[in-house]
Amino acid sequence: MNLDHPVLSSLLPVVLLILIGFVAGKAKLVRAESVRDLSNLVFLVLIQALLFRTMSSVHIEQLDFKPVAQYFLVAGVLFVTMLWAFGGNSRASVLALASIFSNTLMIGVPLIGLAYGQEGQVLLFTLISLHALVLLSLATLVLELQMAHEQTALSGEGRPVWRTVASAVRNTLIHPIPLPILLGLAYAQTGWGLHPTVDLPLALLSSAFSPVALVLVGITLAFTSMGQRLSLAIRLSLVKTVVHPLLMGGVGYFLGLRGLHLAVMTVAAALPIGANVFLFSQRYRKEEDTVTAAVAVSTAMAMASVTVVMAVLPLLPN
Questions:
Q1: For the chain, which residues make up each domain, given as ranges?
Q2: 49-84 b/e with 16+ CB inside 10 Å = b?
Q3: 249 pLDDT band (50/70/90 cuts)?
């Protein structure tokens, strides 16, 4: 086995981090009741630093949005389809998000760098700059609307539609994911840059996000009953690692994407479920066990799906 292959060298560290967390959980090094606190640490501290710091250096005028727009078109259609397939409720919005949200940072950055070089990474960074903002904001807005509707149905009290929508939009904008992205993007346009005194602690917190989040996935997996959720986790993983890249590659090719643009966007779609979905499910307490299992299963499946995608794309006619 060639451990220097781009796919293996990018995915194996993720598998090992999840495994380390799983062993730590089984060994009771971390108690089950501490998982929520660790999740809050990752979601409310580490990811805030990562998103703000990433966006604070993004200059909109330098980005190529055409391939990214096509990526989000495919993701949006798949999200709506999976939302309908899973029942259209608040639970379904979390599962639909898992079907489209890739691990672009921890796996995508090293993988694309090794396979396609700096030019490929520039394209991926354009996607990353909007990935969480667009997809998590979409899922948050839909979920907030669904939860408001479900609460109204339970209480039997009517509520004006405009008030429900306004509340959902407000909750979306002040959500811990879109807010630091928007603030970082706004700050980037000033051109001031981050002073080293501020940038260094943000960099340290940012670098801790991916490993801590993946170890937390493993810890949660240790306390999860896989038997009941495994079937759904496998179906979710198949949608994420097989259906998503097939749609992205097919639609992108039909709409005129070729070469490096098509390759980077399709490989990004073939990546496993990102840890942000796990944190999203933890925060809203929706389908936590299923998403936890799906992150692990999709990571294993991606070893095959990403390899196939990278082998097939060069064979397509220009």
A1: 6-315
A2: bbbbbbbbebeeeeeeeebbebbbebbeebbebbbe
A3: very high
